[in-house]
Specification:
Elements lengths: L22 H12 L4 H10 L8 H15 L4 H9 L2 H15 L1 H16 L4 E2 L1 H14 L1 H4 L3 H18 L2 E4 L2 E4 L6 H10 L2 H8 L3
Antiparallel strand pairs: 1-3, 2-3
Helix pairs in contact: 1-3, 1-4, 2-3, 4-5, 5-6, 5-9, 6-11
Length: 206
């Protein structure tokens, strides 16, 4: 398996607004991928047999498809670390998988999150989310068509990812960035893949 941010050709998406972090379902799906299950087999187990333990059939499909797309292109080293590594490292890899599959979220990490690591302002405010999406609306025709409701839900999804991953801490309405402890082997692996931009965004590396 291969992939990475540098090879990402996907258009901007708002899928995160409904399916942000989803750590536990992602672990279930990752183990199926590691065991060599094809998409159809994993779909059957997760959706038809409901191994995700989600009540709604439509919601199972939604979670499965989004999470599968994120995880299927992780290489074997990162997939194994995601399944077996420490919680901090595992969640870090999931953020990487999300950013690899969602170029708009990566832009957010590079523009907004990285600034909290390197600048004097250590948090992201609601107005910072607004500023980011207004900037993206000016730059991109797809984002420009999204409603204010969609953008508000998308901001909520981003906030969820930061908090659930441990990269951020919610204090009142602000998200304060946090330094996370990640396996050096994982950092080196992501760097070798060619995705140093992600490491610059979430770790503040030069």
């Amino acid at each position: 398996m291969s992939g990475g941010i540098k090879m990402n050709k996907k258009v901007y998406s708002s899928a995160i607004k409904k399916t942000p972090f989803e750590y536990l379902p992602s672990k279930i799906i990752a183990k199926m991928i590691q065991n060599g299950l094809l998409y159809e087999e994993a779909f059957d187990r997760c959706v038809n047999q409901n191994e995700l333990n989600v009540v709604s059939d439509e919601r199972r499909k939604e979670i499965f498809n989004v999470c599968y797309d994120r995880l299927v292109n992780l290489d074997n080293t990162l997939l194994k670390e995601f399944i077996d590594g420490s919680i901090s490292t595992s969640k870090f890899i999931l953020v990487y998988a999300i950013a690899s599959n969602d170029p708009l979220f990566l832009e957010f990490l590079l523009i907004q999150y990285r600034d909290t690591l390197l600048g004097n302002k250590k948090y992201i405010s609601i107005s910072d989310f607004d500023d980011f999406f207004n900037l993206m609306k000016e730059k991109n025709a797809v984002v420009a068509k999204w409603t204010d409701t969609t953008l508000k839900q998308l901001a909520g999804g981003y906030r969820n990812i930061l908090v659930e991953s441990g990269l951020g801490e919610r204090i009142k309405k602000n998200i304060y960035s946090r330094n996370v402890i990640v396996s050096p082997n994982v950092i080196k692996r992501i760097e070798n893949i060619g995705d140093k931009a992600f490491l610059q965004a979430v770790l503040g590396v030069k």
